[in-house]
């Protein structure tokens, strides 16, 4: 596969006032179906990744991102797809977080994240979130 076949995805880690993280479950028929994910989606042709993050989080979660900082960038090759996940930590947003696409969703504490089944590429995201919460461990 050429590198242009890699799917570029903007992903947001949203935390609430209790320090819980928003996750939702991918629809069964999708790639990596039934697994849990952080909200986000494909960056469109010519779109800036930060704009894509804002657009996807508005579409999927009904919030307006006001500030976000890069958390990690992951290149991962699944058997059937290659992805580039551009992961951001959302540090300021307005609106109430909802799930607008009929996906099951939850707020989970950082230690609880480890109990959910995520796509393989997400392990690095979870490690980064845990590092932020428990530096030095
Ligand atoms: N949103 C999201 N996608 C992830 C995560 N981990 C992971 O491997 N992926 C992969 C699964 C998919 O192959 C790809 C995202 O594609 P998607 O189908 O959800 O994109 P989308 O929301 O723009 O949906 P679409 O309407 O364009 O199909 O990234 C994650 O935590 N969140
Ligand atoms: Mg999506």
From TrEMBL:
<keyword id="KW-0227">DNA damage</keyword>
<keyword id="KW-0235">DNA replication</keyword>
<protein>
    <recommendedName>
        <fullName>8-oxo-dGTP diphosphatase</fullName>
        <ecNumber>3.6.1.55</ecNumber>
    </recommendedName>
</protein>
<feature type="binding site">
    <location>
        <position position="31"/>
    </location>
    <ligand>
        <name>8-oxo-dGTP</name>
    </ligand>
</feature>
<feature type="binding site">
    <location>
        <position position="40"/>
    </location>
    <ligand>
        <name>Mg(2+)</name>
    </ligand>
</feature>
<feature type="binding site">
    <location>
        <position position="26"/>
    </location>
    <ligand>
        <name>8-oxo-dGTP</name>
    </ligand>
</feature>
<keyword id="KW-0479">Metal-binding</keyword>
<feature type="binding site">
    <location>
        <begin position="37"/>
        <end position="40"/>
    </location>
    <ligand>
        <name>8-oxo-dGTP</name>
    </ligand>
</feature>
<feature type="binding site">
    <location>
        <position position="60"/>
    </location>
    <ligand>
        <name>Mg(2+)</name>
    </ligand>
</feature>
<dbReference type="InterPro" id="IPR047127">
    <property type="entry name" value="MutT-like"/>
</dbReference>
<keyword id="KW-0378">Hydrolase</keyword>
<comment type="similarity">
    <text>Belongs to the Nudix hydrolase family.</text>
</comment>
<dbReference type="GO" id="GO:0044716">
    <property type="term" value="F:8-oxo-GDP phosphatase activity"/>
</dbReference>
<keyword id="KW-0515">Mutator protein</keyword>
<dbReference type="InterPro" id="IPR015797">
    <property type="entry name" value="NUDIX_hydrolase-like_dom_sf"/>
</dbReference>
<dbReference type="InterPro" id="IPR000086">
    <property type="entry name" value="NUDIX_hydrolase_dom"/>
</dbReference>
<dbReference type="GO" id="GO:0044715">
    <property type="term" value="F:8-oxo-dGDP phosphatase activity"/>
</dbReference>
<dbReference type="InterPro" id="IPR029119">
    <property type="entry name" value="MutY_C"/>
</dbReference>
<feature type="domain" description="Nudix hydrolase">
    <location>
        <begin position="4"/>
        <end position="133"/>
    </location>
</feature>
<dbReference type="GO" id="GO:0046872">
    <property type="term" value="F:metal ion binding"/>
</dbReference>
<dbReference type="InterPro" id="IPR020476">
    <property type="entry name" value="Nudix_hydrolase"/>
</dbReference>
<dbReference type="GO" id="GO:0006281">
    <property type="term" value="P:DNA repair"/>
</dbReference>
<feature type="binding site">
    <location>
        <position position="122"/>
    </location>
    <ligand>
        <name>8-oxo-dGTP</name>
    </ligand>
</feature>
<dbReference type="GO" id="GO:0035539">
    <property type="term" value="F:8-oxo-7,8-dihydrodeoxyguanosine triphosphate pyrophosphatase activity"/>
</dbReference>
<dbReference type="Pfam" id="PF14815">
    <property type="entry name" value="NUDIX_4"/>
</dbReference>
<keyword id="KW-0234">DNA repair</keyword>
<dbReference type="GO" id="GO:0006260">
    <property type="term" value="P:DNA replication"/>
</dbReference>
<dbReference type="InterPro" id="IPR020084">
    <property type="entry name" value="NUDIX_hydrolase_CS"/>
</dbReference>
<dbReference type="GO" id="GO:0008413">
    <property type="term" value="F:8-oxo-7,8-dihydroguanosine triphosphate pyrophosphatase activity"/>
</dbReference>
<keyword id="KW-0460">Magnesium</keyword>
<dbReference type="InterPro" id="IPR003561">
    <property type="entry name" value="Mutator_MutT"/>
</dbReference>
């Amino acid at each position: 596969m050429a590198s242009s076949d890699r799917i570029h995805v903007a992903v947001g880690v949203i935390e609430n006032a209790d320090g819980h993280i928003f996750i939702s479950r991918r629809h069964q028929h999708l790639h990596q179906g039934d697994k849990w994910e952080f909200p986000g989606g494909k960056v469109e042709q010519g779109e800036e990744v930060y704009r894509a993050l804002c657009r996807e989080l508005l579409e999927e979660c009904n919030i307006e991102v006001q500030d976000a900082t890069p958390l990690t960038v992951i290149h991962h090759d699944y058997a059937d797809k290659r992805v580039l996940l551009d992961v951001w930590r959302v540090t300021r947003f307005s609106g109430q977080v909802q799930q607008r696409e009929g996906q099951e969703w939850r707020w989970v504490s950082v230690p609880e994240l480890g109990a959910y089944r995520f796509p393989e590429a997400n392990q690095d995201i979870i490690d980064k979130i845990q590092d932020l919460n428990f530096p030095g461990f």
